[in-house]
Design a protein that fits this description.
alpha/beta; five-stranded parallel beta sheet; 6 helices; binds flavin mononucleotide
C-alpha cells in the first residue's frame, strides 16, 4: 500500500489555521485516493532537542560505518521511505517553527535521505516524488527574498531527490486590510485543485 507521510508542524494545534487548511487538503485528497494510507507525525510531540556536539559526532560515525538502522535514523528512514509527503507549518520568524527545523536536522542523514557523489554533489535517496508544503503567513511575502521557509524546503527537496516540491499558502492573514476568511476560502479552493493530482 502506498503511504503519504503527513508532517504536522502546526504548534498551535486546534487553533492553527495552517492545520485546518492541511486537514481540508488531506480530506479531499484521501477521498480520491482511498487506497493510500496516511501516517501522521506531530513534530512538536516528538520533543526533539538540538544536537549536541557529541551527538553530531556519533551520527557522523554511524553514517561513515553504515550503521544506519538504529534509533538515531528512524525519522530519516521513515521520511526516505514515504511515497508522498505533506508538511504543514505556520510562517514564523520568516520561516517556520523551531520544531520543524529540528525535524529537518534529524532527517538530514548521509546515506539515508541523501548521499554525496564523487564530485561532492548531493544525490537524493528519498522515494517520494512530490512534497506539498502547506503554510499560512501573517504578512505577504510572495516573491520576497525575506521568505526563508518555502525557499529552504524547496532547496532540501532538491537535496533529498524529491522532484516536485509544491506550495499551498494563504498569506496576509494578519493584515487588518485583508479579509482573512476570504483568503482562507481561496486557499481551500486551491487545495481542492491540488488534491486532484497530488
Ligand atoms: C511566534 C510567531 C512568529 C510569527 N512570525 C511571523 C513572521 O515572521 N511573519 C509573518 O508574516 N507572520 C508571522 N507570524 C504570524 C503567523 O504566520 C500567522 O498568524 C499564521 O497564520 C499562523 O498560523 P497558525 O494559525 O497555523 O498558527 C508569526 C506568528 C507567531 C505566533
Amino acid at each position: 500500500m502506498n503511504q503519504l507521510l503527513f508532517l504536522d508542524g502546526c504548534v498551535r494545534g486546534e487553533q492553527s489555521r495552517t492545520l485546518a487548511l492541511a486537514r481540508h487538503f488531506l480530506a479531499r485528497w484521501q477521498a480520491q485516493n482511498p487506497d493510500w494510507s496516511v501516517e501522521q507525525v506531530d513534530l512538536a510531540a516528538l520533543e526533539l532537542r538540538p544536537f549536541s556536539g557529541a551527538e553530531v559526532a556519533r551520527r557522523g560515525e554511524q553514517e561513515r560505518s553504515g550503521a544506519l538502522d538504529g534509533p538515531d535514523f528512524a525519522l530519516a528512514r521513515q521520511f526516505a521511505a514515504a511515497d508522498r509527503i505533506v508538511l504543514a507549518a505556520p510562517f514564523w520568524e520568516l520561516s517556520f517553527p523551531a520544531v520543524v527545523k529540528l525535524y529537518l536536522e534529524h532527517i538530514s542523514a548521509v546515506n539515508v535521505t541523501f548521499r554525496y557523489a564523487e564530485d561532492g554533489r548531493c544525490v537524493g535517496l528519498c522515494r517520494a516524488d512530490r512534497l506539498l508544503y502547506i503554510t499560512t503567513r501573517g504578512g505577504s511575502y510572495d516573491g520576497s527574498e525575506d521568505e526563508c521557509g518555502w525557499r529552504q524546503i524547496r532547496g532540501l527537496c532538491g537535496m533529498f531527490g524529491i522532484q516536485e516540491p509544491l506550495l499551498l499558502c494563504a498569506e496576509g492573514l494578519d493584515d487588518v486590510r485583508n479579509d482573512a476568511e476570504a483568503l482562507l476560502a481561496q486557499a481551500r479552493a486551491e487545495a481542492d485543485g491540488l488534491a486532484e493530482f497530488f
